[in-house]
Protein: Peroxynitrite isomerase
Organism: Nonomuraea rhodomycinica
Amino acid sequence: MEEPEVHPDLEPIAFLLGRWEGAGVGGYPTIESFNFGQEIEFGHNGKPFLSYVSRTWLLDQDGNRVKPLATESGYWRPQPNRQLEVVLAHPTGVVEIYVGEVVFHKIELQTDVVARTVTAKEYTAGRRLYGLVKGNLMWAYDMAAMGHPLTSHMSAELKKVA
């Protein structure tokens, strides 16, 4: 089957399309700092949204995979005037709706809605920054959880591999 054309509404975020891999660092007041590997895939089917899947795994000091960490999936929905809506679901029982803006190859997002199942850990807000820097996708994530205000949690640098 032939690859569909990229919908014109995706132009502001089309630079995200493809598969990205790399590594990053994480930490939070309630956990020890850690290194992680990550794979993100942004896809499309010709409609005006990107599909999104992210997988992370714990890395040891030599960069070897130790165990799976977080995964999330969802949809990135560009809106008029370079605005952006992102819907993400997590297997831990959390669903997030982010709103934000695209400025050239920089995306800033903050949660508009966070919903949790009764068994999910307490999480109340998130802020994400994505940017294309010298061809690499850099991102940072701040979260408010477990009684803490928005605090740096994870960041990574990913290279496009497909």
